[in-house]
Amino acid sequence: MNKLLVVLSVCYCALVTSVAHAALEIEISGGSAQQIPIAIVPFAQTSINGQDNLANIIAADLRRSGLFKALETGGVASRPSSLAQVKYGDWIALQAQALAVGNVEAIAGNRLKVSFELADVLKQSKLTGADYNIAPHQLRATAHKIADAIYQQLTGEAGIFASRIAYINKSKGRYALQVADADGANAQTVISSNEPIISPAWSPDGSKIAYVSFEKKKPIIFVQSLMTGQRITLASFKGNNSAPAWSPDGSKLAVVLTYAANSQVYIINADGTGLKQLTKSSAIDTEPTWSPDAKWVYFSSDRGGRPQIYKVSSIGGEAQRVTFEGGQNLSPRFSPDGKSLAMIRNDGGKFRVALQDLASGQVQLLSEGSQDESPSFAPNGRVILYATKIGGKGTLAAVSSDGRVKQRLSESGGDIREPAWGPLLN
Amino acid sequence: MNHKFFNQKLLGGLLIALVLTACKSTPMVDKPAAVEDKSPATAVPAKSTDANANTTPDTSAIKEVKIDTNANSGMNPLKDPNNILSKRNIYFDFDSDVVKAEFRPLIEAHAKYLLANGNAKLILQGNTDERGTREYNLSLGQRRSVSVKKSFNLLGVQDKQIETVSFGEEKATSNCTDDACYQGNRRVDVAYENE
Q1: Whether the Cβ atoms of residue A102 and residue A119 lie closer than 8 Å to each other
Q2: Can you tell me whether residue B118 is helix, strand or coil?
Q3: Closest residue of chain B to A232, computed from CA coordinates
Q4: ipTM > 0.90 (yes/no)
Q5: CB contact (8 A) between residue A373 and residue B133
Q6: If one looks up domain A34-155 in CATH, what number appears?
Q7: Does the distance separating the beta carbons of A238 and B142 come in below 8 Å?
């Protein structure tokens, strides 16, 4: 299994001009960011010696969100593993507002019991907690669930640490569609091929991935179950079959077909039946994406000369132009709340992630690369994952949707591209 | 080569192509979705038994599917390095889908082969350089393959023997720094089905 290395860096809010750069510091500087100081005590986990302490995984998750300051706990003498053992004075002295403790116990049937508790340090009271009865291989996933529970309790929003990401890893002439935890760990290969694979798209329930494979000398869309490996050929019509995009209820996909001419957007049932043409133009229409309310399909098209983003009712009709600024706008992707649109903007040959507020039309550039591609929202809308190039090598990067926190996920060896963030799986 | 004969044949082909174009209906190849079971369905879904257990599928154990297409074929004129039929690349100028005159002999040779071998099926694969998004480049590459297809049509080859597809930027040389490098990526590759 490959392990992606997570490299953190911080981008300062453009408005805070007085702050000097301090590379690789995890904390966000600038007055506007309110970070919650939290102490996460190393879990009592002698039963699983040699494993990464869950506290480290949880702290790394919370730090990456940019909303937490995970405090160094090494200087505190006490090591409580349950709230009953906590001396709150220790943590008040550390200026922690929240405190997480936990432990891992071996139980019958080669299983583990993981417990955690979260406390409000100032009120000296328990906020939440949970027990998990798990198989040993679910340890990291459980740490991510605990991080999600803490994140949700303290921010009021859903956490995304237990969600997963898909991407293509090109290595030694082979292409692998891989799925990893949101922190890049625990990568597993879904399909590998000596021909290209592009455009992975998660089904809304997270059980399947649609993708485009060139294994038959042309792009064909497959839908594959992650659990069984069984796949169906979703679209293998004459010409190209590409750009699969699931409808929000998972019953249909928008796809792009060419037959013998230019790319057009079609809609097809998730079992490959009921094909209908959605866009009709003599130009290129591609990269469809559904609005979260399923009423619209947004897509890129060069019907006006250079590629821009358009929308069409998902039941058909005239297309309307959505983007007017920028040399080219490509790869539209909706935020989960439907209020903004991430896209790739090309100005002067530099392809970057941009975010457009749909009500005001205002656009913010979020990335600084020159070949940034494939924006994909985290399921809580807080972060946009995208592909970039560093030193000529494909790698993944993420930016918070306010532009403030940046991360890079680089992998030794492979060329990583085409990220897609999976849904929340509770 | 008997030019007169060839031209007559081409003209005939062209007429057929016109007739076919005039009466062709919607060119959909409507295949039902085939279920392709790459692995015996023995995988037992790992049961999620944690505190938050619910009906969510546990996809933590992923079944891998492996594809390898590098298994085939014998010697034939299409592969003979001394035969023009082994030449498979048509290059384009920047931002252009116009087929340049220097590639006429290549296209004519393949057209002749297709006319002589009615069962042969050509796949024209458009390509672009790596600048821009992958899916958009897939569509741009398609324009080039359609442009080459039209050249074949003019030589009498019918659409049923040609499929136009695109690889977009997937076969592009990465990290080009000069136009000579980009130029190599702006091309249509000529391939045959089953080779």
Answers
A1: no
A2: coil
A3: B35
A4: no
A5: yes
A6: 3.40.50.10070
A7: no
